[in-house]
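Researcher: Structure for this, please.
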Amino acid sequence: PVVFMVGCEERLLPLRLEGLPADPQEERRLFYVGMTRAKRQLYLLGARKRSIFGQSYRCEPSRYLNDIADHLKSLEEAPPPPKRRKAEQQINLFG
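Model: Predicted structure, token format:
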């Protein structure tokens, strides 16, 4: 099978929420189990920036990614999204 694991960022993996006890060793174990399910291809995905509860955060890669040997991984970054045109510029396109 091909496995996609999303949210491979600090604050999500391991999860950090106020009021909840942290169990990073259990999360590391579950991360490992998820990776071992991949027989053909494994994709570990993370965001550079994420909005959570209306607040925007800059994201750092999960510390668990450091446990993977460099020769087993390759980094591919998505191209930046296209710049949006201002509403006025868009209206002028129809003028």
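Researcher: Any notable elements?
Model: The mean pLDDT is 87. The domain at 2-75 is CATH 3.30.160.800 (Double Stranded RNA Binding Domain).
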